C-alpha cells in the first residue's frame, strides 16, 4: 500500500486527531494517530495488516515462529498480521511498568517478529525487544503500520514499516506557542494506573 492509501484508511476512520498530545515517550505533538479508531473496523484492519504481512514475508527474515506485540495498541494488529503470516500471536504487557510475556510460554531460540501499531521514538519497541531477548527469543525485526519517525527511530533490530509519516514531536520544554496554548491530553496506556 502507498502512504496515501494507508493514510486514507486512517482518515476515513477519523483516526487522525489534531490538538496537543502527550505521546508515550513524553514528547508532545499536534497530531495523534488514534489507531483504535481504525481497529474498530475489521475490514480496514485486515487490509492494513495483510499488506504489512506481505512486507514482512518479503523482508527475507527466514522462518518466523511467532508474532509478539506490546499491549495495548499492538494487540489487534499483531493478531491480524500473524493470521496472514500463519503463525501464533502473543503479547507482552506491563507488570510494574516493565513489559513481560505474562500469559504465554516461549521456547528458547524462538524466531520472533514484533508487530507494533505506531513507532515514534522506538522506545516501546526496544522495551519489547529487551523483554523477549531476556527470555531467550531471537528477535528478527520490528514491524509497524506507521513509522512516525520516517526511519529515524532506534528499534535496536531492523524496522519494517507499512508506511512512514513524519509528524512533528517536541520536547515538553520546547513547545511552539500555538501548541503550548492548548490543554494537553494523553491518549495512550503507558503509566496508566
Ligand atoms: O515509539 P514510541 O515512542 O515508544 O511510541 C509508540 C508507542 O506509543 C503507543 O503506545 P502507548 O504506550 O501510548 O500505549 P498504547 O499501546 O496503549 O496505545 C504506540 O502503541 C506505540 O507502542
Ligand atoms: O508516540 C505515541 O505515543 C503515539 C503516536 C501516535 O500517533 N499514535 C499513537 O497511538 N501513539
Ligand atoms: Mg503501544
Automatic annotation (TrEMBL):
Q: Which residues bind orotate?
A: 120, 148
Where do the coiled-coil regions begin and end?
A: none
Q: Which EC number(s) does the record attach to this protein? A: 2.4.2.10
Cofactor needs: Mg(2+)
Q: What class of enzyme is it?
A: transferase
Could you give a GO molecular-function term held by this entry? Answer: orotate phosphoribosyltransferase activity
Q: Which residues form the Phosphoribosyltransferase domain?
A: 45-155
Q: Which PANTHER family match?
A: OROTATE PHOSPHORIBOSYLTRANSFERASE, URIDINE 5'-MONOPHOSPHATE SYNTHASE
The name on file for this protein is Orotate phosphoribosyltransferase
Name the source organism.
Pannonibacter anstelovis
| Record gene name | pyrE
